[in-house]
């Protein structure tokens, strides 16, 4: 039988340094064989030119290159994870599988099955917290129940951070000698997994002291490139949340810090209430009689609603895979309340397009826009898509970048008048909630 090895399974933690599970694996008794599985259960739902898959692939190749300088590599597989693990344990003398927690419903179900399968084969399965500072039920009310309103959660989170948090960084460079020594482990091309390189590239993140200090002042203006672009990098783990929290707290910018806490708020909501992926958190909101007009949905998707700020946001999304957060709130509210289209339709479209798609935040924010979620906007608060321009893009810089044909007084006809849409929305919501 081959030499004994431990497997480290990379998932949404695509970096070699300050990776808790990888660090723990490298400190184990056996050499570490790193792997990544292109999971067909996930990939089969994605368009073949998906920019996120291109990004993952390029990141993995860079990781392989680094590992090969240490006489090792990263084994890449394509298929159903259970089938892949059956293949791996027949090829290697596996003692343990080490990974990091993933909190999404599919991932927790998958990991439970894999753990049971490995146990039946007398192989250990160990998973660690890596992508958040506090997880699951680490920040809860005094009675042990989860917070469902952000502000008290955030205050308790900060208290716990200041009191209990160990700011350890899990440096791994000096332990890379503990890798399985084989530099020609299985590799794949994009073609092997039935994908092609995307024309859209995920931008580098920008977390300079200036970005953090000016974040509060500039973050609401979509024409300004003033956000950090951290989203995709946190999503795929190409950056460490511990290092980012250290930056945020050292610069003492409460708003930037609190945006990172929002992410953890939604993650613990998803963990406590996984049914909210499909169902309204506030059950009575599932009684809303959505219009779900497919022609209007297509106009919304294409950025042809006749409301220039809404259209600019959707065209930005379609061409770059990104949308400014202020505009995300507007286009989501517009779909749910002006067009009375089910928030799940919008959530699914964002899931297909957003480079920084994160299930917990996406579901949480869409339910916020619809009024059906935790800490939600009250249903009678309906954004006026015209006055939003005056507040956040009065010089039309953002609009003209993505809607170059826009001219005041001569643009597409509005898909619905704001006043009429508002009154219709209030009637439909009242009927469902009364």
Quick overview of this protein structure:
With 434 residues, the protein is α/β, with parallel strands linked by helices. It has helices at residues 20-26, 40-43, 51-68, 81-91, 105-120, 150-164, 209-218, 231-236, 241-250, 254-272, 294-302, 308-320, 325-338, 343-353, 359-370, 387-392, 397-402, 418-433, and strands spanning 4-10, 32-39, 75-79, 93-100, 124-128.
Question: Could you explain the architecture of this structure?
Answer:
The chain folds into three domains: 1-130, 3-Layer(aba) Sandwich (Rossmann fold), CATH 3.40.50.620; 131-167 and 203-272, Serine Threonine Protein Phosphatase 5, Tetratricopeptide repeat, CATH 1.25.40.80; 277-433, DNA Cyclobutane Dipyrimidine Photolyase, subunit A, domain 3 (Orthogonal Bundle). The model has no long low-confidence stretch (mean pLDDT 94). The radius of gyration is 23 Å and the shape is globular. By secondary structure, it is of the alpha/beta class. The longest helix has 19 residues, at 254-272. It has a five-stranded parallel beta sheet with strand order 3-2-1-4-5, with helices on both faces. It contains 18 helices and five strands.
Spatial gap, N to C terminus: 68 Å
Overall form: globular
Give the ordered list of helices and strands.
EHEHHEHEHEHHHHHHHHHHHHH
Question: How many distinct folded domains?
Answer: 3
Strand order of the largest sheet: 3-2-1-4-5
CATH architecture type of the largest domain: Orthogonal Bundle
What composes the largest sheet? 5 strands, parallel
- At the first level of CATH, the class of the largest domain is Mainly Alpha
Structural classification: alpha/beta
Helix percentage range: 40-55%
**Total number of beta strands:** 5
Pfam family, one: FAD_binding_7
Protein name: Deoxyribodipyrimidine photo-lyase
EC number: 4.1.99.3
Organism: Aequorivita marisscotiae
